[in-house]
Every structure is written in C-alpha cells, then in structure tokens.
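Changelog-adjacent note: as of this version, every example in the card shows the full chain rather than a window. The one below runs 125 residues end to end.
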Amino acid sequence: MPARAEDYWERLGWPNWRGIGDRDASWQVASWVDHLGNHHREWIETGGRYWDNGNSLRDFMNQGEAGPSSRNYRGTFQEYNAHIFDHRPQFGEKTYNERFVRAISTGDLWVTYNHYKSFSYLGKF
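Full-length structure tokens:
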C-alpha cells in the first residue's frame, strides 16, 4: 500500500507544514462505486513536521548518501502517513506505523514501517 500512497502524495505535490499547518490535514484521493453499488472512498493524511531528533536523516544526507545536492541540508522535513484510509481520519485515531518522511527543500524521501525506528531511502520525489 505505501506505493499507492506515495503516488497520491506525489500527485498532490507533497503538501507540507508551510502551507497546511503543522498536523493532521487529510484529502480524499479516490471515490468509486463497485458493481454491487457500494460506494468506496480513499483518504490520505499528513502527520506534520518531522523533527529528525538524533539527526539520522540529516546525517545520511550530509554524508552524501542522497547525492551531492543534499549535502549540508538545513531545511525541514514533513511526515506523511503511508496508510490509505477508507474514511476521513479523525484526530486521535490510530494512523498505523508506516510513514514517509520528506526533506522539503530537496525532495529526498524515506519510508519507515516501524514508526521511525528505521528508515529506507527511496530517492528524490
């Protein structure tokens, strides 16, 4: 499911805290009626600004692992839920462990499947 969620975020232009505020903005990204007449919807939700406590992502960038254009990164990060919801998420609702974290200025993107315990670098998006 993270690949579909990533595609939805990319289509939305990776909204971030600068334009939407710091937490919990959601978008309906799909709606259809199946052959039985059941209405289906899909929603995605941002998490907010990601602070990179411990500097693991920033260190990865500064060591050149994300390419030369990402060295000396001083910008901020945004987190996005990688889970697609079948309803509009409500404040305080469980949002699962999968997240994307994106460096806003460079587009470097990571995914975590265990709520920030470890990351996999996906590239620039």
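Structural remarks: Residues 2-11 form the longest helix (10 residues).
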